[in-house]
Amino acid sequence: MSHSEMTxxxxxxxxxxxxxxxxxxxxxxxxxxxxxxxxxxxxHLICKLIPAQCPFERDITLFGKTVAHIPPMCKLNPLYxxxxxxxxxxxxxxxxxxxxxx
Length: 102
Known about the structure:
4 helices, two-stranded antiparallel sheet, about 10% strand, about 40% helix, alpha+beta
């Protein structure tokens, strides 16, 4: 077998973990992805409500000792990608349609 005929299957299809075929969150994800921004006030409200970046993790200390650790909120929110996409679409609407420098 020559080098041109060799193929290697390393088995990497995706770096993301496999998604279940149906999740009870899929209809909500689809609704959030389908929202079309067509109002300047709504776009501003979305940009104000959804943070620009994942909130930082926090350590809760009491009397100098760490009593709890809060992981980054984006890791806890299963709809984080949809919210970030909605905020991005709002920003794009404000820049492209309204001519605002955000």
